[in-house]
């Protein structure tokens, strides 16, 4: 906020109160000096002095280095004040009341930039009650602010047209994942056929080390018939429970029946440790995945209808 010193009586006066000071307290006031920079403003020239140097700049003198301002609000307010100044210049000479009100408006700090708040500010703070005049003030200031803003020019290239690239292929199709969602959103376990004959040194010709660490290996005799087997675990658990009394069964018995159904669907001739580990892991996963369907209480599992 800018503060002036009256050249006649020496009183410190805020910029917004200069008019009142000259009209009621010191009618001999002809010059005003800024209390910060010391510059003297004769007559009405003080109205253009809206901001001044900071205390740090004042006392450091030539050694002062201005910091880059990151206050975007101050920049917007300065631009708005400049729009008011431009509105004063372009105000029609045949409407002195409009020009005089704009000059008074320039003496205030932090003039609102939104239409409703702006009009309320002019009416309440400046005591202007002519709604037509208030609307005219807003229109001319807003028009100058709009002209001062640069036209928006989008940068960058236009949105890329989607193309059929490998990145759009589902991961399951690229990586040969063992899981694929079906139409109902349920995951289906997919067991690939056993690897090809191993070399004498114990490594497969086409085995990926990282994949082998994540997928349990199955013995050659554990599968027969189809090269790929799908088993719907959610449906399998649900079918077994729906046949039980009260739709309730012990977890141990349920596991045994579901794993037996899975082994039958997979065509496994023998159940290896890897096979059982894989099946138990899938069973536990799907049993806990649907708590609203499978109610677990102690060692019992109930199908929620």
UniProtKB/TrEMBL annotation:
GO biological process: negative regulation of transcription by RNA polymerase II; rRNA processing
GO cellular component terms, A-Z: nucleolus
Region (Disordered): 149-219
Compartment list: Nucleus
Annotated Pfam families: WHD_LYAR, zf-LYAR
Biased composition (Polar residues): 154-167
UniProt keyword Coiled coil, yes or no: yes
Keywords recorded for this protein, A-Z: Coiled coil, Metal-binding, Nucleus, Repeat, Zinc, Zinc-finger
GO molecular function, one term: DNA binding
This protein's name: Uncharacterized protein
Organism of provenance: Ramazzottius varieornatus (Water bear)
Lineage: Eukaryota, Metazoa, Ecdysozoa, Tardigrada, Eutardigrada
């Amino acid at each position: 906020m800018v503060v002036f010193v009256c050249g006649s009586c020496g009183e410190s006066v805020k910029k917004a109160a200069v008019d009142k000071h000259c009209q009621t307290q010191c009618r001999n006031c002809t010059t005003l000096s800024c209390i910060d920079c010391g510059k003297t403003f004769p007559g009405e020239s003080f109205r253009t002095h809206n901001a001044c140097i900071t205390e740090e700049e004042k006392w450091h003198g030539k050694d002062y280095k201005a910091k880059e301002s990151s206050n975007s609000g101050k920049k917007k307010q300065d631009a708005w004040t400049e729009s008011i100044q431009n509105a004063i210049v372009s105000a029609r000479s045949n409407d002195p009341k409009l020009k005089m009100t704009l000059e008074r408006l320039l003496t205030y700090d932090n003039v609102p930039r939104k239409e409703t708040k702006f009009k309320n500010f002019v009416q309440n703070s400046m005591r202007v009650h002519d709604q037509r005049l208030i609307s005219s003030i807003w229109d001319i200031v807003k028009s100058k602010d709009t002209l001062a803003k640069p036209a928006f020019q989008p940068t960058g290239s236009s949105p890329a047209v989607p193309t059929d690239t490998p990145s759009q292929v589902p991961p399951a199709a690229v990586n040969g994942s063992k899981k694929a969602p079906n139409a109902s959103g349920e995951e289906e376990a997919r067991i690939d056929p056993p690897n090809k004959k191993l070399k004498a040194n114990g490594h497969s010709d086409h085995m990926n080390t990282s994949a082998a660490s994540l997928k349990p290996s199955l013995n050659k005799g554990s599968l027969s018939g189809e090269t790929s087997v799908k088993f719907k675990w959610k449906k399998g658990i649900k079918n077994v429970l729906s046949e039980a009394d009260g739709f309730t069964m012990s977890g141990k018995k349920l596991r045994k029946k579901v794993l037996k159904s899975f082994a039958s669907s997979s065509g496994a001739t023998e159940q290896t440790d890897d096979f059982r580990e894989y099946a138990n892991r899938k069973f536990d996963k799907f049993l806990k995945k649907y708590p609203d369907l499978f109610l677990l209480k102690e060692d019992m599992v109930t199908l929620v209808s």
